[in-house]
Amino acid sequence: MIVILHGKANEKDGERIAKTLDEAFKGRVAISLNDASAPVPWPLDVNWDDLLIVAYDATSFPDAGNDFIAEYLGKRKEKGLLLPVALDPAHRSPPKAAGAIKAFEFDAAATGLNGRLVRRVGAMLGLRVQQRDNTIFISYRASDGMAIARQLEERLVSLGYPVWRDEAREIDGETKILPGSAVQKQIDEGLEKASIVLLLDTPNAPDSIWIKHEVDTANGQLLPILPLVFRTESDRKMGPRFRSLFDLQRWVPVLLQEPLPTPPLTEDDLLRIVAEMEQYLCEIFQRKCRVPFIVEKEFVSRDYSWQMLDKRLLMCESIKKHSVRLLTKVLSHCSIFDQVHGPAMDAFSAYLKKTGRPNHALYIYDGELIPEPQLKEIIESTPPDDGVVILHHQELAALIDSNFSTFTP
Fold first, then answer.
1. How confident is the model over 138-147, as a mean pLDDT?
2. Which positions ≥6 away from 171 have C-beta within 8 Å?
């Protein structure tokens, strides 16, 4: 749930923010306005998508409002999502109880469905999509990425984002990962809590066995990976150095200065990296709101039951009883990624083997239609006995109405 806590004079601003967010996220997140001078208790029980937006200006923020913020954070063991929004650019200092978080400036670029506010809120909620501990995992090679990782972590923390970064794990002398080793255990625990991986793709990164392990593990867990590709001006190559990430078609190019200055990242670098990360997380969250909603609607409107079997992996089951002895069971995976289908298909295949065979297995995706060559490649790499149908969510209604006859996207 999103609660917008506002001063008495800022009610109209709060209403405008609420309307924009409700439209952007298709009404899939409850939004409530709360007057900071006499706030009512948090409307619902503590939940994964709780976000408190504190909208304020130059006027004195009420003590009751500060108490509400402190209580909100206290009940969530300091893991509550909090976003101070400065309505007056000349007064950016947040209310006392929210003072640890850098204020978000509500300027012209922040408004509208494609504005910075929707992107920031979508990113914050997008971290919670995986139903984990909503941390940002920074993957880096210590030999040439330590200073960059520290500076990036500092910026993210100042914006209220929780970060996982392990300074002690880089052991260049090891040539293989030992199962159950202390380093592997730390990495796996960090990834288990993460909702996105920021990969610092520096020149030395591909030589790290640990980064390769992190990339493979993240892919297996359907964790989004955003490569930050650092190259010098003389290096004209494009894209990530990790072949398994090249097909992402999504990375942030960053010019690597030689020698590395202190601090290594410019203000423009930091702004661009954070903006790209927030855009990615926001898109994932919007798909999480949109795709399962559409799929559920199509099945339920045709007298199928609907059950989310695994919220983190978005595995859904739909059943229609035709008679006492005859029923149709459909298992669907609602992919929240665009263009990245290989790891998701692998996870779906593994889930099918674990749960048993339905009558039909559907891999339902969003975004651009998969081009024919890529679709053929995905189908050929999928075990033939899985019988998975790959389709865009816009094609689902026709498939159900055809009684799942042979279908070619």
1. 93
2. 183, 210
- Residue 377 CA to residue 375 CA, distance in Å, equals 5
Per-residue tokens: 226: 């955003």
Looking up tokens 């889930």, which residue turns up?
A: 351
Tokens standing for 345? 């298909």
Contact yes or no for 249/241 (Cβ under 8 A): no
- Number of structural domains (the chain) is 3
Residues 211-258 have pLDDT tens digits of: 998 988 887 777 889 999 999 999 988 889 988 787 666 899 999 988
pTM, to two decimals: 0.69
For the chain, the maximum distance between any two Cα atoms, rounded to a whole number of angstroms, is: 74
CATH number at residue 37: 3.40.50
Q: Is residue 364 part of a domain?
A: yes
Q: Which domain does 190 fall in, by range?
A: 135-265
Q: What is the pLDDT of residue 384?
A: 67
Of the three residues 196, 230, 265, the one that is the final residue of a domain is 265
Cα distance between residue 253 and residue 234, in whole Å = 14
Element (H, E) at 156: helix 142-158
Q: What is the H or E stretch that residue 163 is in?
A: strand 163-164
Task: Report how far residue 14's alpha carbon sits from residue 310's, in angstroms, rounded to the nearest whole number.
Answer: 35
Q: What are the angstrom distances between the C-alpha of 264 and each of 137, 146, 183, 207, 230? A: 19, 10, 27, 21, 11
pLDDT, one tens digit per residue, over 101-139 is: 889 999 999 999 989 999 999 888 877 655 455 689 999
- For the range 126-129, what are the long-range contacts, defined as Cβ-Cβ under 8 Å and sequence gap of 24 or more? 126/195, 126/196, 126/280, 126/281, 126/282, 126/283, 126/284, 126/285, 126/288, 127/161, 127/195, 127/196, 127/281, 128/48, 128/49, 128/81, 128/195, 129/195, 129/284, 129/285, 129/288, 129/336
Beta bridge partners, 194, equal: 135
Ordered strands of the 2-6 beta sheet = 31-35, 2-6, 51-56, 81-86, 104-105
Q: How far apart are CA 98 and CA 157, in angstroms?
A: 14
Integer CA distances (angstroms), 174 to 34, 68, 151, in order: 55, 51, 27
Q: Which helix (H) or strand (E) holds 146?
A: helix 142-158
Q: Are residues 257 and 158 in the same domain?
A: yes
> Which H or E element spans position 2?
strand 2-6
Q: What is the CATH number of the domain that holds 319?
A: 3.40.1340.10
